[in-house]
Amino acid sequence: MEGRRKTLGRRIKRARLGAGYRSQKSFAEAIGVSENSVARAEIGDERVGQSVFLAIEGGLGWTESAISVFLDTGDEATLDRQIDGQASQAAASAPADDERAELERLRQQVALYQMRDRINEELARLDRGEVTDESQREQLVTEVEALLAQLGEAGHEPGEKRAFG
Length: 165
Prior knowledge:
The chain is mostly helical. It has helices at about 1-20, 25-30, 35-45, 50-60, 65-75, 75-95, 95-125, 135-155. The chain has two domains: about 1-95, lambda repressor-like DNA-binding domains (434 Repressor (Amino-terminal Domain)); about 100-155.
């Protein structure tokens, strides 16, 4: 099976590049897995799980379970059909670089909103007197200050009510 995984890894890489993803990182972000998971899949590592393979299939426009069928049977024609037929569709629908940048900007905005909400939740706990132990209170204040610093580093004033971006 190791030989099959290595073959699969080469095919995944070829399909990723054919779909317009120049880096493992951009592909990993697009399909919601770690860059390390994509790298392991492309070298044929045995530790790559089904959930990563499903994400890869979806990202490349492959039929669900095509990878499992190949790993079970060794039928390279299964992968060839996926690469030849559906990877070209994935390339046509893969977001352009400016769309990827916009998606990343939106992800960052969501993270900032989540950070702001967490700050508000922690401050509300302090206001309600839910934290009575002095060391817990100091720890909470330190956490809020760290979150505020992160928000400031992202270019936003802590009290801003405007949309991020």
